[in-house]
Specification:
- The chain is mostly helical.
- It has 2 domains: 2-177, no CATH class; 178-210.
- The protein contains 7 helices and no strands.
- The protein has helices at residues 2-43, 48-64, 66-71, 87-123, 136-139, 141-164, 180-200.
- The mean pLDDT is 83.
- Keywords: Cell inner membrane, Cell membrane, Membrane, Transmembrane, Transmembrane helix, Transport.
Length: 210
């Protein structure tokens, strides 16, 4: 079980890393949209490449971040009934969902999407719109995104099995991580308390920051 938990932590770290940087795709899509609008207003010209680049970036952002979203339990859930059930029943429902619904769906999508990506890459298929972009990069978002989602589903499955066996923490709790700004504020607060305590000749309170 410890080897599986180690694998789970590695998958969590992978999706946490991806989720940390995928926000830049949203920024890039916004920048492309702004540049396209400025060029069109100022010079009266535009291109379908700008429009397609926006939805390429958007597609990559929400598909690749699907595993990160599952890691933080942010997908839409209908908890009207589930939240009233005992914790172990909730965990078993998740186990069934990850094993018999999420995994098969991801496998089917991967099975159907990889041949399309390879075919579009080999043929160099282009957009049917004048000035459009090549197609295979956006198709590649499907297998990449669903691979990360499936891996995260396996990670969540491992956590729940470990919990039922008494070898892991409650997997139903939401992960809460401090942002870099919050950590900076906490450090500054601690420094101020330490300085004030030193000036008063007292011992500063113990830090609760992790």
């Amino acid at each position: 079980m410890q080897a599986l938990l180690k694998l789970s932590r590695a998958i969590d770290a992978l999706n946490a890393f991806v989720g940390k940087y995928v926000i830049w795709l949203i920024f890039a899509a916004t920048a492309v949209s702004a540049i396209n609008a400025l060029v069109r207003k100022i010079f009266g010209v535009s291109s379908n490449a700008f429009l397609e680049a926006q939805w390429y970036l958007f597609a990559w952002s929400f598909l690749v971040a699907a595993g990160f979203t599952l890691l933080h339990r942010e997908h839409v859930r209908i908890d009207v009934v589930n939240s009233r059930l005992p914790k172990r029943v909730q965990v078993w429902i998740d186990i069934v969902g990850f094993a018999f619904f999420l995994t098969p769906i991801c496998v089917v999508v991967l099975y159907l999407s990889w041949p399309l990506v390879i075919q579009n890459y080999q043929t160099g298929e282009m957009s049917g719109n004048p000035g459009g972009l090549i197609r295979w990069p956006v198709w590649a978002a499907l297998p990449v995104g669903f691979t990360l989602l499936m891996l995260q589903g396996w990670s969540e499955l491992i956590k729940r099995i470990a919990f039922l066996r008494g070898q892991g923490p409650d997997p139903m709790g939401r992960l809460v991580e401090k942002s870099s700004e919050e950590e900076l504020v906490e450090i500054l607060r601690q420094q101020q308390e330490a300085a004030a305590a030193a000036a008063a000749g007292t011992t500063p309170p113990a830090s609760t920051a992790r």
